[in-house]
Amino acid sequence: MKKIKISVIGSTGYAGKELVKILMNHQNVKLVHLVSSSYAGKNIAEIFPEFLNKLDKKLINFNLDIVSQDSDLVFTALPHTVSMDMVPELLKKGVKVVDLSADYRIKDSVVYQEWYKKELNQISKELLLEAVYGLPEIYLNKIKDALLVANPGCYPTSVILGIAPLLKHHFVEPVGIIIDSKSGISGAGRKLSLGLHFAECNENFKAYKVVRHNHIPEIEQELSYVYFGADNKEQIKRIKVSFTPHLLPINRGILSTCYLSLRGSKKEEEVLEIYQKYYHKAPFVRIFKPPNLPEIKYVAGTNYCDIGFSIDERMGKIKIISVIDNLLKGAAGQAVQNMNIMSGFPETCGLV
Fold it and tell me: Is the pTM of this model over 0.90?
């Protein structure tokens, strides 16, 4: 099989580094350019010594003509709002893009501008609508033909995969949804911040952005599509969630606990069946049979999303536990999964 030529923009962030680690060993990929504005001119092994004698690749500044001419597909692993300056130009040059930021996840430009405080030009507004949300377990067929894939956020991946089967089958009420999520420190990115220093995080556990985390509109958008249907525009904003993220004193991993109200009495066997049917073709989703529940250590270093549940009959509630590695299924692994689908490769190629 002919190899496709891949470049990574933002190759020295946490997600970018994970992308490089996967792609350098991907049998169908030729890694062409690694772009890093911070370390241009250095060899990647100078920044990450684990690549020594494994990958000899010089980091470069972004050059549209060079990158687009040499690449079939580009990953943009950049801070939020930065990709919008590069992605349209790459697409104009005929290059496919998987964007790991939040720049193309929200369909409603008004909602995007409200949450990310960035004014959008007409091209960006159009690309919001054209981009395919890169959650393969839900949008597989759309991803196959996509030119631009908006890779989902880490928290939303864990939440949406955890809740989607219940909403799709209307087993739960679409109101009063509470989500309690915990993430490893790498989820905040590699940029220096006082709150992420070792002395601040070690032997500590804290909530943050408790009412206005940027992943909230993404979660609400996609859960609304699942429940009401993508064409029901009038009802698309009806699902709202109460989302609280927490910072765990670990390097990587997310555990989300989702609380939903059941519609009538439901047996464990019924719930287990709808999850197994919903994900029977999803190679990276593993469903735990009660009373077993997933843990972060089961998915660390993998592209899996593990899901378990427990029914609280006394309260008429169901509790969903969903875990992922935030740097893999929550970022780089899922991005490669999307690349595989866009390129006609087996979905699991390079990931198992």
Answer: yes
Which DSSP string corresponds to 217-264? Answer: HHHHHHHHHHHH-TT-GGGTT---EEEEEEE-SSSS-EEEEEEEEBSS
Residue with tokens 């990310």: 116
Q: Quick check: 74 and 90 in contact, CB under 8 A?
A: yes
Q: Identify the CA nearest to 254 among candidates 329, 336, 167.
A: 329
Is-contact 330 282, C-beta < 8 A? no
Characterize 2-34 residue by residue with b for buried, 16 or more Cβ atoms within 10 angstroms of its Cβ, and e for exposed. eebbbbbbbbbbbbbbbbbbbbeebebbebbbb
Cα angle vertex 93, ends 6, 333, to 5°?
Answer: 30
Superfamily of domain 4-151+331-343: NAD(P)-binding Rossmann-like Domain (3.40.50.720)
Rounded to whole angstroms, the Cα distance separating 216 from 122 reads 24
Catalytic annotation present for 258 = no
Task: Spell out the domain ranges in the chain.
Answer: 4-151+331-343, 155-324
The phi and psi torsions of 116 (rounded to 5 degrees) equal: -110, 0
Q: Which CATH topology does 155-324 take? A: Dihydrodipicolinate Reductase; domain 2 (3.30.360)
Main-chain dihedrals φ then ψ at residue 63, nearest 5 degrees? -130, 110
Q: What is the pLDDT of residues 204-247, one digit of tens each?
A: 889 999 999 999 999 999 999 999 987 765 555 689 999 999 99
For 48-94, write each residue's pLDDT tens digit.
999 999 999 999 999 999 999 999 999 999 998 899 999 999 999 99
How many angstroms separate the Cα of 136 from the Cα of each of 40, 305, 318, 331? 33, 12, 25, 13
Catalytic site residue from 154, 201, 258, 349: 154
- Which DSSP symbol is given to 185? G
- For residue 221 the two structure tokens come to 């958008």
